[in-house]
Amino acid sequence: MNKAFSNPIILAVDTSSIEEAEKLVLNLRDYIGGIKIGMEFFNSYGPAGIRSIEKFGVPIFLDLKLHDIPATVYKTVSTLLKLNPAIINVHASGGKEMMLEASRALKDSNNKDTKLIAVTILTSLDNDDLKDIGFSDTSDALVLQLAQLAKDSGLDGIVCSAKEISLIREKIGNNFLLVVPGIRPERNNHNDQKRTMTPKEALLEGADLLVIGRPITQSEDQIASAKKILDQIE
Ligand code: C5P
After folding, report:
1. Which DSSP string do the residues of 40-102 spell out, in sequence order?
2. Under CATH, which number does the domain 9-233 receive?
3. Which of 3, 23, 55, 65 is an active site residue?
4. What does the pLDDT look like over 178-222, one tens digit per residue?
5. 8 A C-beta contact, residue 51 and residue 22
6. Residue 223: helix, strand or coil by DSSP?
7. Is residue 215 classed as helix, strand or coil in its secondary structure?
8. Is 229 helix (H, G, I), strand (E, B) or coil?
């Protein structure tokens, strides 16, 4: 596990309200290892928003999924690293040169603790969607290919679904950070997630960090829900 994270739970702070985000982090910081901030929040509040959240001392996964030409990604990664996030990410489908430049930006910075990971294939895309955009392989084959490309480009890991963990561990090994969303502590409550695992199952499969949103944020007692997940995995 990334040393910056005191436990494997990364709370998905999916809100465009800074008040709501601050309240969530303040109330839950003792039970979570980190938080994930996405485009919704970052495009509303930018670096100032990150600073207002980082005062709570919880590591931040800045989930902006960069995908652009290599030179632009180099400069953008360099800029984002000034915010000192624990994790940042790019799309592996931006290609090897783009990932190499992202990786070089990290090496050229002072951030020795920031992890750079890749999104492989969005879990919202099924095999028909992939055909529509010109990919003829299945999602499993593409995920593996892109994960290997990320590894070969010097990235620290990937975001993947729980069902892909064992294949990636088998083919790419253990020295690769796997950050896994689609986690559901209760088997009967999936929201819109289709391929879920419980936190314990995902960790046993080989996940390093678990991105968990609604099972905590939409719960009537957020602290009790977070505590329960922590108890399950400790
Ligand atoms: O609420 P829930 O636990 O489903 O939140 C999961 C988080 O992980 C959300 O921020 C969602 O956008 C993100 N995510 C995902 N599946 C992916 C990548 C990211 O659910 N493949």
Report:
1. HHHHHHHHHHHHHHHTT---EEEEEEE-S-HHHHHHHHHHHHTT--SEEEEEGGG-HHHHHHH
2. 3.20.20.70
3. 65
4. 999 999 998 767 777 776 899 999 999 999 999 999 999 999 999
5. no
6. helix
7. helix
8. helix
- Size (the chain), residues: 234
Letter for the amino acid at 200? K
Q: What are phi and psi of 62, to 5 degrees?
A: -90, 100
> CB-based contacts of 84: which residues, under 8 Å, 6+ apart?
54, 111, 114
What is the rounded CA–CA span in Å between residue 179 and residue 204?
13
Per-residue pLDDT tens for 12-41? Answer: 999 999 999 999 999 999 999 999 999 999
Q: What is the pTM for the complete model shown?
A: 0.95
- Positive or negative CA dihedral for 164, 169, 172, 176? positive
Closest ligand 1 atom to residue 36 Cα is 10
Alpha-carbon gap, residue 196 to 224, rounded angstroms: 21
- For residue 142, which of 159, 130, 152 has the smallest C-alpha distance? 130
Q: Whose CA is nearest to atom 2 of ligand 1?
A: 213
Q: Which residues line ligand 1 (CB under 6 A)?
A: 12, 14, 38, 122-123, 159, 161, 181-182, 191, 193, 211-215
Cα–Cα distance, 115 to 175 (Å, whole number): 13
Mean residue pLDDT of the chain comes to 94
Q: Count CB atoms within 10 A of the CB of residue 64.
A: 17
SS3 label, residue 116 = strand
Active site residue 65: yes
How many CA atoms lie within 13 Å of 181's alpha carbon, on the beta-carbon side? 20
